[in-house]
Specification:
Blueprint lengths: L18 H18 L8 H5 L4 H5 L2 H14 L10 H6 L1 H13 L8 E7 L5 E6 L2 H18 L16 H13 L4 E6 L3 H4 L2 H9 L5 H11 L3 E2 L5 E2 L12 H18 L3 E5 L2 E6 L2 H18 L10 E4 L8 E5 L7 E5 L1 H14 L8 H19 L8 H21 L3 H10 L4 H8 L5 H4 L3 H6 L2 H4 L6 H8 L2 H6 L5
Parallel strand pairs: 1-4
Antiparallel strand pairs: 1-2, 3-7, 3-8, 4-5, 6-7, 9-10
């Protein structure tokens, strides 16, 4: 099983060409499905009898076929060798056979990892690593064998990069801790965590549960794969596990499980999502004490560095977690509202502004279509907001409609063209002239009565996803009854 958060950093691969290629791809996909369907969810009988033969399960034809299928589904940009997932699919039998032989003979050597940089929401850049497709297949095959071994041992308060868990289960547990009276939050942020993972400590923890030393050595080779920078320079790797490969998430959880077990040993309430950890205590004094002791543990024992600028002891409502903020309900003291954090709201506003530029040169329908896709995905994450906080969605909907009206104004170019257009939309001459000839910019004219009546909220229904309506759909009684968690 592959975590839902995997490979989010990959760009879409270039699309294939003619019909012959699609026919070949269909044949190869059928071949992979046929091979992968025999894969067992548990370890094979041979490996169960002899844990030292775990590499044979990793390199089994069924496991590699399933891994290649998952890599193809995740798409992803080519690595340094330039091979696309479509090309890998076209030569699936050869790729699997060569990779299987290389793994079993221990001749497999991962290729370099292509480093790309994307902007971080809080400023700066995040370095991501894109391995070659064949290396992603090897990592995915290894993940499919390691996950059943380590997943049952992870602490239940760890929610990141785990099957059946995610941001929603993390937020639900945060509410439980707040309702239990722990209103002070120790917000821990690890500085460049993925770049600072100590290889030997990670391999030692793997070796505690993986009896096959060949598998541990395979992970070592993957960790040591060189990094190819954007300028073509190759850099040797001495620490860290680059984000971007299928294996990186579970390795991060293996490392940070040591922190989880230490927090549990101390009897602390906490919620961790990847390298973002919140600890819940009853007083600020206790929070300061926990912050000092856990920071010492992380730096001296785990050789990780705490980001002093982003880490702090905060009162309820001062911080944020996974884009959400938490406030005490105005109705009862033991209930809490879940709303958008300031950073999440600002990020949404910036994205809307980027997707609705004033110089939009295509049809309005295409703009609304791309916006709807983004807003639907965005609301799938933020549907946990409570009714008191969902008022923000109504304001965003109104802002989006106004930006779209402004695009219409600009696309008409001249006032007389806008005037004629509004007349065709059924506006009176006075209302159309007031909007078209007001002598102000497009943003001001977009909110004139002539424009708002020509394009009322009802006109956008069915053409554009409404955040408020989508939130109501996702939180309707019928949906809530079917959800595993009740928020």
């Amino acid at each position: 099983m592959i975590p839902r958060q995997l490979s989010l950093v990959f760009a879409d691969s270039p699309k294939g060409g003619g019909s012959d290629a699609r026919s070949d791809a269909s044949e190869q996909r059928a071949f992979l499905l046929q091979k992968a369907k025999h894969k067992r969810t548990a370890r094979t009988i041979a490996c169960a009898a002899d844990p030292g033969r775990l590499l044979e399960e990793v390199a089994s034809e069924e496991n590699l076929s399933s891994a290649l299928l998952n890599v193809i589904r995740n798409k992803g940009a080519p690595g340094p060798d330039g091979q696309t997932v479509e090309e890998a699919q076209a030569r699936a039998p050869v790729l699997i056979d060569d990779l299987r032989r290389a793994l079993l003979t221990e001749r497999y050597r991962p290729g370099p990892v292509r480093r790309v940089f994307i902007p971080k929401t809080g400023g700066g850049q995040r370095g991501l690593g894109i391995p070659n497709v064949v290396d992603r297949v090897a990592q995915q095959a290894l993940l499919q064998v390691l996950e059943p071994i380590f997943e049952p041992t992870f602490h239940p308060s760890s929610h990141g990069f785990r099957p059946g868990r995610g941001a929603h289960t993390a937020v639900a547990e945060v509410k439980e801790h707040l309702q239990a009276g722990c209103r002070i939050v120790v917000d821990l942020d690890l500085e460049k965590f993925f770049d600072r993972v100590h290889h030997q400590r990670l391999l030692d923890r793997l070796g505690q549960k993986v009896a096959d030393c060949r598998v541990v050595d395979l992970v070592r080779r993957m960790l040591k794969a060189s990094v190819m920078m954007p300028d073509g320079e190759k850099i040797a790797v001495r620490e860290g596990t680059p984000q971007g490969g299928p294996l990186s998430p579970i390795l991060s959880n293996v490392v940070l499980d040591e922190l989880d077990q230490e927090l549990a040993r101390r009897g602390l309430r906490f919620v961790r999502y990847a390298d973002d950890c919140n600890i819940f205590v009853g007083s600020r004094r206790a929070g300061e004490r926990v912050m000092a002791s856990i920071s010492t543990f992380l730096e001296q024992r785990m050789r990780l560095r705490v980001n002093a600028e982003k880490s702090a002891v905060r009162m309820l409502g001062e911080g944020h977690f996974l884009g959400f903020c938490f406030r005490r309900s105005s109705e009862t003291d033991d209930q809490f509202e879940v709303g958008l954090s300031k950073k999440a709201a600002k990020r949404l506003a910036e994205t809307i502004r980027t997707m609705t530029p004033g110089n939009w040169g295509r049809s309005l329908a295409s703009c609304m279509e791309s916006l709807s896709r983004y807003l639907s995905g965005w609301m799938a994450h933020f549907r946990l907001c409570t009714p008191e906080a969902a008022e923000d969605f109504r304001r965003f909907d109104a802002h989006i409609r106004r930006r779209l009206r402004a695009i219409i104004v600009r696309q008409k170019k001249r006032p007389r063209y806008l005037y004629r257009h509004l007349l065709r939309r059924g506006m009176s001459r006075m209302a159309a002239a007031s909007a078209a000839y007001c002598g102000q910019g497009a943003w001001n004219r977009s909110n004139r009565p002539g424009m708002t009546r020509a394009y009322p909220p009802s006109w956008f229904k069915g053409r554009l996803v409404s955040l408020q309506d989508r939130w109501k759909e996702l939180n309707s009684p019928q949906v809530s009854d079917q959800m595993t968690l009740v928020f």
